[in-house]
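Page 47, continued from p. 46.
Same chain as before, 245 aa.
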Amino acid sequence: MAFRSYLSRKFTECREKSKVASSETDEDYNAFKDAGDGGTALSGIAEAFEELSLFIKTNNNNGGSDSSYDLGLKPLCDACSLVSMLFGCLGIAFKFAEIEYVSKVRDLTDASSRYDTVNNILDIDVQNDTVRTPGSLSRNLRRVRQGLDLIRAIFQNFVSTEDYSLKEAASTAYAQVCAPYHSWAVRTAVSAGMCALPTRDQLLLKLNETEESAEKEMKRYINASIPIIQYIDNLYISRNISLDW
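Result:
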């Protein structure tokens, strides 16, 4: 009974907080419709990450290490903010992830007026010994990176076969990417919410994609996000900060 009461309380909190998160994800989705270029939300996300990925690959090909060149904080935040609507499409099972992701991206976006690059925020937190402190920008960046990787893993599973349901794709992805860092209570709540995930066809309808177009755009995001995720990881590693948190 105590745990059931806990879950009820968390879901109530979740619904209240999601009003803000849903408002922001709706704004992100509407931005695509207002663009008027005929593209879908998914294609817009893929394009944004391809631009960041190209910047990283170009610098790597020119002999730069991940810590020797700077990725702008605002361009990263702009791309990451577009991903928010994908969490919204997944429903209550990933509402915790959506709320955390949207909040962390917003904090990083606010910080981009003070710090030009991703390197800058890590340097400041290393100097102040606040890298892992709750609310620090370095910790926020770590959580946003996990959000990007979760979507990548879901997409990877989703396109692996048409027989793979969204529930199977999301459950496997969550177990790989997020579960190791979540408390038992959160893991249990997410597991309980998996039954509320949309079907494969319902997700495609929400994304305004067909099986063929979704596979194309998801693969674009997968390929573009990997260098960005690796870039962020290497910024921590180059400063002797482990990734087990």
